[in-house]
Amino acid sequence: MKKNIVFTILLVSFIMLFGCTDNQQQIDIVESTQAEPTIEPIVLDVILSDSGVSFKRTIDNYIDPESLEKQFNFYGMPDFENKRYQLVVDDKLYRFKFDEANSNLVTDSGQIIPYEIVGGKLCLAVKPLAALLNLQVESHEGLRIIKSPNAAFGKAMFSGTAYRDYTKVNSEKFTETEVSVVNIAEGFALIIIADKAYLTSELNLTLVQEELLEIAEKPVKPLVLAWDLYGNKVEQTIDPLVDVVIPKWLSLQSADGEINDLYNPEYAANTKKQGAELWVLVNNGFDPDLTAQFLANSQARQKFIDQMIAYVKQNWVAGINLDFENMYLKDSDAYVQLAAELHVETKKLGIPLSIAVTVPGGSENWSQVYDRARLAKVSEYITLMAYDQHWENSQTSGPVAGYSWVDQNIAKTLEMVPKNKLILGVPFYTRIWYERLSTEEPNKMKVRSKSVFMDTPRELIDENEPVRVWDEENSMYYFAYFEGDSLVKFWYDDPAAVARKAALSNKYGLAGIACWSLGFETEDVWQNLADALKTKEQ
Questions:
Q1: Same-domain pairing of 422 and 365
Q2: What is the pTM (predicted TM-score) of this model?
Q3: CATH code at 355?
């Protein structure tokens, strides 16, 4: 089929260093007519003086590595307790020890980078850091910039009001020019062209970022992953639709990074015999305190990663699914750091790292803790657990995963995760709700629920002849009947309903689907899924 392919032409190749010292240089802007924007002191501070609007800029000898993450894929995290610092740059891990007496970081090979602690943040000396990482530090017109030899130049143009050499120039256009956009903040853009600095209104900045080309593209079959909660049925039949089986075998056992292993060699052999790849899931036991202690300790993270890689090699595992849930929001950055460090090793082995996340917008521990955009940068796939819309202890009955709810949350997640990295999780279970009048509070219902496999609702329908109503918003049937003093109700995720949600993978061009969980399903679900995932050319 024909498909629009977006080619990003503009690539950022320079950035300004900022934030760790107070050596400032003021630059006057001539005849500025721009309204004063309100911005934080990041790269450009806009201030008011008697002569009008002017700009000041910080030039640093030290830099917070976190500020380089966007441009250079830096992921660094100090471990002050163990006097260690680990920095991931472009999927390469650098390990340092603190030499506190001399305020230096020292690599295992003896390379030294001076540091300062400013505002609780670790700031590193620019030139030694750049030398270690094979980056170049250059100065132009009072600007200190850093660039990577691997960064490509792009093309851009801007028109309207621009500032050349800090002087206003009217309606000047720059086209077909090698440039670097240093920063865009609150309506202003700072640009480096050759050895000159320009400041322009963002409103008048036009970047040639994409062009649409018609290219014939062969459709790619969506991946079909199947998690396995139990991972112990050694003779189970795996449908040919399934590409990958992911048993829940591993979990974080202690804060020092020790892993609990439930590996089953017969299960592994049976999976591979049927042509499916074997990945493995590792979780954190849903223990936020244990997880916090573990993530903060660089040595514990390294022990965990060493065990994971040894496990993969020993058992011929073809991928890892990282499934940490119920974490403190304060540990969000540390979780990204763990993923970045683990990804360094999985890349060496050539195996995919996938990371399970919940839908956006929930509680701190269960949803907000995931920095989905950053996690996507240090993994091959993000598996979206698009279920438990109404969870087990909810006091409001509802579907496990209503169609509209799933659709909306895919769209939200795609604002943070590229579609070719996103895998949609679909449920193979239904939640049965029991509601009865409260004997303790007036006009209240007591609500409880239980999760059941896909075949159980069929049995309840046959046995109880419930009321059946089509729920358009959730794209599934709703059933209800009385059992003693309780109203029993459920939204049935039957094979057709599950398939309709899976088809959203095609709608959004996602990488595939992941089913929770193998063994919960009825046999007919596989044909429904196969039909839903077919492309037009198949």
A1: yes
A2: 0.80
A3: 3.20.20.80
